[in-house]
Design goal:
By secondary structure, this protein is α/β, with parallel strands linked by helices. The protein contains seven helices and seven strands, in the order E-H-H-E-H-E-H-E-H-E-E-H-H-E. It comes from Candidatus Mycosynbacter amalyticus.
């Protein structure tokens, strides 16, 4: 039976800096991966003064998706930094429609899994929270319709990595305790690929290189909260 994985994030680099190791392992095992980003990341770092940063970042995302092994990518076109209740309602409907359309092409011989970011936003970014909640709503809507959905996995960070909350930018909660984490995936066998995926996002290389330097091979160790 074919496994369809829909990974929903707010910005083009969220899955790269987050659970890219797990996504690589999934596609290498035969999972059909669909990456969904709500925005083009146009409000991100623009140290090279690109006139159309969003276009640049989507091209970087496509390059990263190819390394991950994604079957398809879906950009929903919302404004970076402006996600809210209104966009959440629209996004959850559009995500559900994407899943229905793709599932219908598989003739019933499939199972569906979702992946998104921890609904605490990890960094506190409201866009992250909106993406997570839109994915969650779509998941439970489709499940109530009878689609073969198995689980939704929320990529989170451990308290070992982020032991306390942080207020350097906007409020960022501490990492999740071991009692809250349901699954840990060690993808260090794909570490070189994970590094390359992160570096695809060249426009955001300051954040990317800081992430790699701070966490070493742990960038390929991913933690999840799981709901069914």
């Amino acid at each position: 039976m074919k496994k369809l994985l829909f990974a929903v994030f707010a910005h083009p680099d969220d899955e790269a800096f987050g659970p890219s190791g797990t996504l690589v392992l999934e596609t290498r095992s035969g999972t059909e991966l669909h990456l969904i980003t709500l925005t083009n990341g146009a409000a991100g770092i623009n140290s090279e003064s690109h006139i159309e940063l969003g276009t640049v970042r989507l091209a970087e995302w496509q390059a990263a998706a190819e390394l991950i092994g994604a079957t398809a990518t879906h950009h929903l076109g919302y404004d970076d930094g402006c996600l809210c209740n209104t966009t959440l309602i629209d996004a959850q409907q559009r995500i559900a429609r994407i899943v229905r359309d793709i599932a219908s092409q598989h003739g019933g011989e499939y199972e569906v899994e979702f992946m998104t970011i921890d609904d605490n936003g990890i960094t506190g970014h409201i866009d992250h929270t909106v993406a997570s909640r839109a994915a969650t709503h779509a998941y439970y809507t489709l499940k109530s319709e009878g689609l073969a959905l198995s689980r939704i996995r929320y990529a989170c960070v451990s308290r070992d990595m982020f032991p306390t909350h942080n207020i350097d930018w906007i409020y960022m909660p501490a990492g999740r305790s071991l009692s809250e984490i349901n699954e840990t995936v060690d993808a260090r066998a794909a570490l070189d690929t994970v590094r390359d995926i992160i570096r695809c996002h060249h426009s955001q290389r300051g954040d990317g290189e800081a992430h790699l330097a701070a966490h070493g091979d742990q960038v390929a160790v991913n933690h999840f909260i799981i709901r069914t």
